[in-house]
Amino acid sequence: MQYLIFVVFLTTVLGNAQASDLSVQLSNQNRVEETNSHAGQNPDQSDVCQSMETREIWCPLECNGIAEGEPALMDEYEDEYNSGCGYHGSGDGFQYLEGDQVGELVFCGKSGWYQTMGAESRDTDWFILEIGPTGQVVWTLEAERETYGILLGPQECDIVSVLDQMIAYTCNGYETMTISGEPGDVIWIWVAPTEYSAPFGFDGFEYNYISSFSGLGSATVATDNISFGAIKSLYR
Ligand SMILES: [Ca+2]
Ligand SMILES: [Ca+2]
Questions:
Q1: What would the pLDDT profile of 110-129 be if each residue is shown by its tens digit?
Q2: Distance 22 CA to ligand 2 centre (A)
Q3: Which pTM was predicted?
């Protein structure tokens, strides 16, 4: 049974296969009750929403923070950047994020869709964070298209699943997840579009999302210059 759930999860939630109702049920069943979520309207965004004279309405984001650094999405792109458990290269496929001196980080991410040999694919972004001295990380997600923010566990690719999730779409406001643990604990999170292919009316390949954090472990080196080898110390 556990194997079945894992296969369904990987193929319907984390991978590039088509979504199913079961994946939604699985995610909801795994929701952590004590996690706080907030879906309030963001007044700064509500008045800049634009109608594209289609069914799609979008709300552009401006981000002032650390850039994700993923190569530009395009057809035949291979997601080998922060692709986590889907990474096929040598070493670690996760992107490590750390807070500033007060444990805060504004991360300017991009996600979207592209075609691989004629099949629709979505960009997935996997991150590793460290819980700071307060024992509580608050993660706020905004996105120009409907986007999952997921807390993952256990932290082994063979058995990883959804511990908690939020779905952010800037036109509806922002979403917040509070993650509690011991200072120094490592957490895995995952960001990707909820849709497996670009929505009707979407032009191009990419859209913007913003992950804002408080309560992170303090940075020792700049994130965009960090090497995976140097930051293995997070596990110590
Ligand atoms: Ca990305
Ligand atoms: Ca990626």
A1: 999 999 998 999 999 999 99
A2: 24
A3: 0.73
